[in-house]
Amino acid sequence: MDLSTVVASSPSYGSKAVDAYKKAAATAATVTAYAVLARGVARELLPDELRDAARWAASFLLRGGARMRVPRRRRTFVIRRYDGDGYGDSSLFEDASAYLATRVDPHSMSRVCLSRRRSRDDDDEDYGAFGYCDGDKEGGGGGGHVMSMEVGASMDDVFEGVEFTWTSMTNCDGHDRQAASLELSFDAEHTDMVLRRYVPFITASVEDARRRDRALKIFSCDNGGSWRGSSYHHPATFDTLAMDPELKGSIVADLDRFLKRKEYYRRIGKAWKRGYLLYGPPGTGKSSLVAAIANYLRFNLYDLDLSKAESNSTLQCLLTSMPDKSILVIEDIDCCFSAITRSGPEKSAEQNADERPPDAPPPPKGQGITLSGLLNFVDGLWSTSGEQRIIIFTTNYKDRLDAALLRPGRMDMHVYMGYCCWEAFKTLARNYFLTDDHPLFPEIRELLSEVDVTSATVSEMLLRSEDVDVALQGLMECLQEKKQGKEIGEGGKA
Asked: I want to staple 185 with a disulfide (CB 3.0 to 4.6 A). Which of 136, 165, 217, 246 is the partner?
C-alpha cells in the first residue's frame, strides 16, 4: 500500500474515534442521571438502617472485601429534674443520680462533684440514696462524702455488655429557669434494652440500696389506737444468730424469694405478704430472729400488743395504717387468744386460768377483739391494704394455737427454735471469743447432745468472763450439772 492510499483513508478513522467518544459520554451521562435518581428515591423510600447497610456493602465491595465497621445511629434520652412545680415527676432523675453516684470513679474523671453525706440518724427514708459514700463503708453513723458528676461532665456505664454514656446537663425550662437533667446516649439498636431492662435495673438497684441503708424504727401501739415509733438498733444479724445453719439458710432463701416475687403475687391474685410462726421453748432466740429478719430486710417493726386494742375496729385501724415494707410482730400469740375464739370469748375465767401457763400474761382486756378480726388482716379482706409485708407470730406452745392460724397462707413457714445445738454453740463461741477451736470443744459437744440447754443460758455462761478458758470451763461445769440432774431425775422416775 502506497502513501497516498493511507492518507486517503485516515479521515474515516478519525470520524470513528469521534463517534465512539460521543457514545461513551452519552452513556456516562445516562448512568449518572440514573444514579442521582436512584439516590433520591432511596432517600425518600428506604429507611435509614437499610441505606446504612447499602453504603457499607458498596464500600465493602469497592475496597476489595476489607472488613469495615457498620456506622450506627445514636439515640439520646433526656431525664429532667422538676422542682416541685407540678410539671413532672423527678423520681427517675433522683434514681438515676443515685445510681450514677455509685459508678463514679474519681481516678478516671477530671472533674467530680463532692458533697457531704447526710447522717444516718436523720429522719429520712431516703438516707443513702445519693450514692457512694467514701469513708463510710462500714455502715457507721453517717459522715463521709458523696461523689457525683459535675455539670457538663460525662461518664460511661456498661450493662449486659452494652456501653452507655451519661452526661450531666443544665438547661433552661419553659419558664426561663435553670433545670438540671441527665442525658443517656446509646446505639439506637439497644432502645428496647434501655426501656425494658436497663432503666428498671437502675430503679430497682437504688430502691434496694435505700432500703438497706435506712435507719430502722420500732413502733408500738398506745391506748388511743395509734402507733408510736422510736429508733431501733438491735445488733442481731443472721451471721451472729445462734441456730442451725441449714434452718438459717432456708429462712434467708425464703426472704430473698419473697422480695423478688412482686409480679408473681400480682399474677396469681394474692396479697404480697409472708407469714412466719416462730415456736419453741423460752430463751431459744425467737426475738433475736425477729431482729435479724428486720435488719436483713431493713423493714421497720410494728410490735402489736392486742391488749391495747379494745375492738376489731381499733385493730383494723392499727393494722391498715401500717405502711408497705413493714413487719408486724405479735409475741406470745397463744396467750393473746387463750380466752378468745373466732367469734368471741366463750370460756369462763376459771377455765382460762387453768389452761394458761403459769408465767403467761392475762388475756387482752378488749373483749371486742376476735380471732376472726385478726385473720381478716392476715388472710382476709384487709390483707390487701398494703404490700411487701411480713407477719410474725411467736409462741412457746404451738399446740395451743387455733388451727385457723396455722394453715398456709396465714403462717406460711413454721420455724422451730429448739435448744442449743453444736453448730449454734460454735456461732456463739465465735461471736464472744473469735475462736473456732478449743481443747474443751469435744467435751462440750458431747454434753450438748445429752442435755437440753437454751442459747440464752449458753450466752449467759459465756458472758461471765472475757477469758475463753474460764468461760468455757464454767459452761462445761454447768452442762455437767444439768446432765447429773437429768440422770437423777430419770433414776427417781424409774
From this structure: 165
